[in-house]
Amino acid sequence: MTGKIKRPQTEPLYSGGNRNDYPITLRYDSAGYYDFINSHLFSSEDILVSQSFNNRRLSCIFAPMKHYSPRPAFSCAFLNDYVSLVELVKRNGKQKDSNGKSKQIYSLACDENLGFAVFFLTDYGSAQKIVTSLSDVKNNMELGYKITACTARGPVFYIIMTKDTKQYNGQQEWFTSDTWREAERLIKEHHDKGRIITGICYCTGLRKYLVVVTETETSNQQDYRKFRFVSELNKWVEEQGTVGFHPTIIFRDPHEKDTLAVLIKDGTETLYTCKYDFNVAPNPRKKPS
Fold first, then answer.
1. Do residues 101 and 122 lie in contact, with contact meaning Cβ atoms separated by under 8 Å?
2. Alpha-carbon span 53 to 110, nearest angstrom
3. Dist CA 62 CA 46 (whole Å)
4. Are 94 and 105 in contact (CB under 8 A)?
5. pTM value?
6. Contact between residue 59 and residue 252 where contact means Cβ atoms under 8 Å apart
7. Phi, psi (deg, nearest 5) at residue 203
8. How far apart (Å, rounded) are the C-alpha atoms in residues 62 and 272?
9. Which of 20, 108, 131, 251 could form a disulfide with 260 if both were Cys (CB 3.0 to 4.6 A apart)?
10. How far apart are the C-alpha atoms of 173 and 213, rounded to whole Å?
């Protein structure tokens, strides 16, 4: 297995161990975004449900989605700037599958230093827009669009709005907040009205949180908590999994330097994989397709 060298070229796997408890050796603990995502989705029905970047470290959730089974075609890429992202979105919009469906953005994340991490899924809604001005969100909601992903880089929020998805059917609201304490208070108010967290990000340039809440019948079955240490977060997620909860959002807060996990209990038995603070290579391999 080692090729008769002192150490194998790839990180060894240890039977019975959890990678979150036994971190990968330094210098062997990074990979390009494309390779990392595809290694987890290869030969599975999983989708990149949630992703969050901070300081070149990626936290994400891989899980199957009942709305997309069998899983449609997907692709992912890492782009250095917004112009490259828009160009890729246009190319994907022109490429149709045998059923006349094109790829839409399912998940989007930004790293301040590296750029845009994007995950595309085929047959995801009927139309889509990238909105960069908060003043345009309301108008697009009135046209039937829902916020399906959000992220931020510098002084700009990047909001993905999609029509006719299988996931976002209820009434939707959004708000910004200068502090997490204020955001929590507003989240509690929306929970009491039957809405759950479906999107969150922090804009370092504006020093504001953006939180998206969507009406659902399972509002009293959502839980969320912030943790300073990944080991404690992972333990809590696993404990909640024993009583039917599964994670839907992982958010690395660049302002408070901790990680938010959002869980939901919806009656489905979801097998998921969480990865926290994975070190993405400085020059991620791009696969713009």
1. yes
2. 6
3. 6
4. no
5. 0.88
6. yes
7. -100, 110
8. 6
9. 251
10. 5
